[in-house]
Amino acid sequence: MKKAWLIFGALALTGCANLSDMAGEPVAVFPVAPEAPESWAAAGVTGEAPEGDWLAQFNDPAMEALVAETLQANPDLRGQYFTVQSARAQARGVYGRSLPNVTAGGSAGVATTYNEALDERFTDPTYSLGADASWTADLWGRIGKGIEAAEATLAATRADYDSARLSLAAQTAIAWTDLNEAVAQETVAVQTVEARERVLKLTERRLARGLTEALDVRLARSALATAEASVASRRQARGNAVRRLEILVGRYPANEIEAPGVLPDLAPIRDAGTPVMLLSRRPDVAAAEARVRAAGLRAEQARLALLPSLTLTASANTNETDLGDVLDPTRIAANAIASLAQPVFNGGALRADRDAAIADAEAALSGYAANVLVAWRETEDAIAADRWLARQVEAQQRALDEAVEAEELATRQYSNGLITIFNLVDAQTRRLNAESTLIAARSARVSNRIAFHLAIGGGIPGEPGSEISDIIAP
């Protein structure tokens, strides 16, 4: 399997380099993409690509349920589904137009004749039946190339649909993570208000006993008001996070989803596959590859349009006054014609169409190379970020532990009159900032882990190999 992936990568990056100009005219040559390394540069993570449900590592049933709801109810995904259905119907239409075209018709009427000798008019029924057929032979494979191009376009839209599903799954998981971060930050802000209320009461008691000045009370009240403003800001952020999530899952943004404010602890990234393996996993890369194939086939189709075309036509008809005679084979007149047409002069339109199709194919190839580079960068970013975010979380946890101890010590010392309220407020602010930063770092690591699985084309959680018709009913 690994050898197959390596071959696939080599073909994708070098075998599709630049299309030659089919008219023999010079074409500028540009590099497509750099050669894929054997391992990721960020951290040397190599091996088999991770398999299975990547959501399971977060041990969060609520996250899994929200992702499943998104894949069923998101309106953007439903629109992408019908884009696939449209491409499928168009591919069927292209194939259908390659088959013989047969039309049939019949009519019934009345014919009136005048007999001069008898001076009488006679009315007789008349019946007619006709059929026409035409078919353009695929002498050079032009029609077949069109069918293959339509099939490649269908494959690209199907891959776009898979990419949209994976992206929405990741967006939902990240939105749920953001909501939990917002809830956790709100909890910290509320706890800070409670702590500063206790400091204010302590300061007011000290003032009553003549142990401090009114300035300390003013400062304590100011610190409490600042903390209350922080709570309001955090609650606004939580509401916004809920509504973003509700839109993703296709609900009305009513700010009704509840979250526990818990963020999971993660193990380091161990397996990521290789840069070459990535090309066979990412649906957006598969879509770009399918578009390269479709554009190349259309370029070949445009070239073949310059060659002669052979069309066969046939017709049969009869016109009788007796209904039984209409179907009499001896009374049916038929003809068949074969015509060979060669474009002679059309103002250069066909050659221009060919040149445009070739340029479109080159553009599609460049787009594929850009997709590959972006896929590699996103994976390298996620691998490197996981290592640094893990270190941030560890260091910030130590900073929080020290800040909590410092706040407790400052509270005792202020109660005993050993330090000023400035020292106490500063210690509380440091604890607040340390806890808030730790929550943000843990949330960033979870979001980065989700982005990692999106970057490596991790598949749709819980639905391996599911067909499009199994996900959204037409």
Explain the overall architecture.
Helices cover 60% and strands 11% of the residues. It is α+β, with helices and mostly antiparallel strands. It has a four-stranded antiparallel beta sheet with strand order 1-2-3-4. A hairpin with a 4-residue loop joins strand 1 (101-115) and strand 2.
The tally of domains stands at: 2
- Succession of helices and strands: HHHEEHHHHEHEHH
Kindly report the average pLDDT value. 82
Q: What are the segments in which pLDDT stays under 50 over at least 5 consecutive residues? A: 1-30, 464-474
Radius of gyration: 37 Å
What name does CATH use for the topology of the largest domain?
Answer: Outer membrane efflux proteins (OEP)
Helicity level: 55-70%
Structural category: alpha+beta
Spatial shape: elongated
Task: Outline the fold blueprint.
Elements: H1 2-15, H2 61-73, H3 75-97, E1 101-115, E2 120-137, H4 142-208, H5 214-248, H6 275-278, H7 283-304, E3 309-320, H8 323-326, E4 333-341, H9 349-415, H10 421-455
Antiparallel strand pairs: 1-2, 2-3, 3-4
